[in-house]
Amino acid sequence: MHPSNRRIAPPKLPDVVDIGDAAEGMATLPAGADGKGRRAPWLAAAARTALGFALVIGVSWAVAAAARSYVMTSPRFAVTEIVIRGAKLRSEDFVAREAGLEKGKNVFLLDLDQAHAELARDPWLRDVALARRLPGTILVQVTEREAAAIVALGESYLASREGEVFKRLEPGDPSDLPVITGLGADAVADDREGVARSIRRALDLAGDYEHGPLGSKAPIQEIHLASDGTTTLIVGKAGLALALGDPPFRKKLDEAARVIGELERRGAKADAILLDNEARPERVVVRMR
To answer: Mean pLDDT score of the chain, rounded to an integer?
Structure first.
């Protein structure tokens, strides 16, 4: 028997787990937290990394903005010198003005692409290059075209030694150049390269003539290129026609010099000397005045 004054503890029951309640409890735990409600270490590290990255981006943007503001407004980067090289037909002041380049402007605010486009529209300028040299210099390199002939195409145009027809003849342009006739304006539009070859051949002929015995005695006035490919030179103040026919021309030019010398010895004057008989090249016909 137990003493009457002792209390008897109730029997200890075994632990019982309700799977449904446990699952519900697990589902309500915050993501990334352990069972005691604490954040997992990797999530805290990720948060610190993201915050640091955001701070770096913000600081970098601020530094870049400050640097941009400085270079765009600092007197240190004002244009103090415009160096132009290669200009002969165009003055340096003209090139700078045409390009829209001015001293005193910020070197970074000058639009070099726009300046290049403006200069490229000038027919005398074949190639253009622009560059900045910090802190305040603009470099401009130009290559000019050189007129070698006047080409009659309804209107008169200038052509380069390469055969490029590049601008209409205007007052002040070179005019003491050989004149090439016989080419049509349609030919330039339809076969620009073919026209360029014809002009180059005409200029080669002009060079041979000018370095020959007649070059200083009777300068070339005109080179006529016929549609059939034959060539006629108009030379001297009197406009003597030398019908050369087809190339090669060197022997024909030598023969023309011999005939002109004989005419001068006799005191005779001719309107034309025909050296275009391809079947009998030794035969020369002189048409007298």
So the answer is: 83
